[in-house]
């Protein structure tokens, strides 16, 4: 009890007490002054008025003005202007209040600064992540998405905040996995296809948010579209190679069995069969040879032997190889390579191979009586170009990006008819890569195709 | 039912519509993909998947109708509910067209398709899918601009369609052997064109929802 009183007494400072006693004293003095006499109303007013004015003045200066300033400062703080400090204050209760409010402002300022910095850091981490991030709260509403997701889904993160998860990714598996992760409170990984509107494949890792009040789940999206395509290409490649090898093998076995069954006695038939077997074996050897050199170049096991290349010589050789085949189908081979074509460095054998493959294709996919033109010259930037154009069947637009894949053929039936296996352009591409060059193609179905090879003059 | 519950069931209906939208987007993609690759199994998958879409459709439609009947919403709320039904119906029609495309794939089985205009189909399908996606995104965000832009894409689809149409007819005239293929190609391009039309319906519904304007955009 006594302690409580002490506390109370301690909390009252001397100024109000002194003021109180001063007022009592003045009142007492006034009454004493007029005592005995008839109390004169005018005199009372005369004495009281200055007091009243003085009191009002003190009230205004000491209490109202500082209060107004404090309340203005508090309002501004609430509006977010935390830099505001109260400057005018006296050494009294209001002064203490003002100082505390200043302190509050400073503390808030610092805390907000720290939080902002933390948030910026988090934002920077999220922004620089290669994976997509979607955070969802316990009610299934999106808390945030990072730029990777914004870009992939072509949505703005601002718009997504607070939306339900189906509003962002319309995918039942995604939603269900999210719900499961939330319910079971355990991590979960799923592969899903998202139409953006082109199909992309994501491996999504769901992690429940632990330690936050309302819970939630963070989904990490890794784009595996390319990897899937590679896997698919590899599987396709193996299937194709097996198929390519099986076709000649089946026919070889068929003829061998017939031979063993007695056809070998008939010399003429036997000879005919053996010729077919020979041709089929040749095809297989060719295919395996192509596969082999492809893998050699691709893996870098066989590096190009750099020497001076004279383009004119190579082209003469290539034309000599094809003059017969082209002549048979009445296809004109035209060379527009200028005599002053720059000498470049590279592997003569490999570059010859590039041109053989390109001219071979140009003839193969031309109509009878067509035209195959070679041209070339400096391409600027220390590069030269060699161009092979034909007026053949052309390549449909959607195949253009695929013809350099191994074993890809636009029209399987037609290519096989010519003994093509679809490795030619893949080999070309890899040879050029080994030479730091590149190849471009343009084509109009029905009108013809143009392949342009770019090579640096000097190999570094 | 208070305001809170009413909003909640509206939100639930919208989410259901989006779920169905996801399935429809996939159906469109899968059906065209199956058609291009002549993949009969995938086509059958689309046809079977349509049952789920139909179920969802009746379920959501019932919810909408019940909401309108019991709550008798007015003004904006009514608009939200009615738009929901509109979008729902468009989605359901698109799913049906995907099934039609899948059926064409089944019918064509064994007749390799090699007509020139075939190569326009993926482009057309991509545009149509983009429209559906943008339409649904615009619905989620009440994004009038996106809805308008999306509706403008319909012209491109129409243009490709007329192109494919003429081209296919001339192919069939040149070579009567390809008439069957040509007929299916015409069907498929027509279905895609219809899908794009339904997508513009979604766009119009979104604009109506956001602004109260009713406008024909195609
Ligand atoms: N000049 C061309 N005109 C039309 N189509 C072409 C041309 N060059 C290549 N192609 C297409 O690209 C495909 C791949 O060509 P590539 O040279 O790799 O294989 P290929 O010619 O079929 O067989 P290979 O060259 O292995 O004997 C071909 O099957 C063909 O469809
Ligand atoms: Mg070739």
Break the fold down into its secondary structure elements and pairings.
The complex is a heterodimer of chains A (460) and B (218).
Chain A: H1 2-11, H2 14-34, H3 41-79, H4 93-128, E1 132-137, E2 142-145, H5 147-153, H6 157-160, H7 165-168, H8 172-184, E3 188-195, E4 199-208, E5 216-223, H9 225-260, H10 267-299, E6 307-309, H11 311-328, E7 332-336, E8 344-346, H12 348-364, E9 371-380, E10 383-390, H13 397-400, H14 412-417, H15 424-434, E11 438-444, E12 448-456
Parallel strand pairs in A: 7-9
Antiparallel strand pairs in A: 1-2, 1-5, 3-4, 4-5, 6-8, 9-10, 10-12, 11-12
Helix pairs in contact in A: 3-4, 9-10, 10-15, 11-12, 12-15
Chain B: H1 3-37, H2 40-71, H3 75-108, H4 120-141, H5 144-174, H6 179-211
Helix pairs in contact in B: 1-2, 1-3, 1-4, 2-3, 3-6, 4-5, 4-6, 5-6
The complex binds adenosine-5'-triphosphate and magnesium ion.
The site of magnesium ion (MG) has 5 residues of chain A, from helix 12.
Describe the overall structure.
The complex is a heterodimer of chains A (460) and B (218). Helix content of chain A is 56%, strand content 18%. By secondary structure, chain A is of the alpha+beta class. Chain A has a five-stranded antiparallel beta sheet, sandwiched between helices. In chain A, helix 3 packs parallel to helix 4 and helix 11 runs parallel beside helix 12. The longest helix of chain A has 39 residues. By secondary structure, chain B is mostly helical. Chain B has one domain: Phosphate transport system protein phou homolog 2, domain 2 (Methane Monooxygenase Hydroxylase, Chain G, domain 1), CATH 1.20.58.220. Helix content of chain B is 86%, strand content 0%. Chain B is built from six helices and no strands. Chains A and B meet through helix 7 of A and helix 1 and helix 4 of B.
